[in-house]
């Protein structure tokens, strides 16, 4: 199975080995600027695509079929010379064993995106030096994507990558850009990364593994056991929610998993869904209409 053997042997080392971990589609939507056809947007899109996909982000060796599928949409709302602002929608997925289905892992809407950029200027990532807010934002999300992917294959497999994202947060906090500090709101890059590394949310990492490896990845072999494993994983999340109601970490999880959970429990072998639906409604009440479609 994809990358299990790579992740079981987890070795911390240099980030310079050629790997190319991502298969990422990058696009720019500049309609809100009323100047969507400017060449600078096309140049930036091409540079970002090359930066994300061609750079080696880890010391792991990834085959082409092992690269993580993801997409990044940069929506630019304001543009003035070399100053840009807007939002960024980031998503990633991982394959499910024994199927052609890709399970969504990360669905993050970054609303604190502002940066300066001059056409054709090089995009360089330096973990210890803040050079570009755009590069810092992208790099933060890339290591989060890699970390969540790893966590779904190996218990606590993403911790190292979340730690690198934390370094990016700490370095960028010296800038005047939003999203990097504890005071930048409850839905910031700082808050999301802080939750991933906090003992308060430790069970989240257990859920990432149990939900995917003990649930989705055995669905082809035993749907009933797989469903019950996912029910148990959701119940574990409830423990987090009891301590930290409406946490950003869990909201982001359910943003990614909403349609998948509804689909899993709307067909196939019957299981007891009463507690599942109750827990889902408690943790993600804004998705109540979706949970109401679960009928087994």
The side-by-side strand order for the widest beta sheet comes to: 1-2-3-4
Q: Count every beta strand, where a strand is a DSSP E run of 2 or more residues.
A: 4
Secondary-structure element pattern, one letter each: HEHEEEHHHHHHHH
- Note the main sheet: 4 strands, mixed
Report the end-to-end length measured between terminal Cα atoms: 30 Å
Q: What's the number of domains?
A: 2
Question: What is the C-alpha radius of gyration, as a whole number of Å?
Answer: 19 Å
Form type: globular
Strand content: 15-25%
Poorly predicted runs are 1-17
Q: Structural class from helices and strands?
A: alpha+beta
Helix content: 40-55%
Number of helices: 10
Arithmetic mean pLDDT: 93
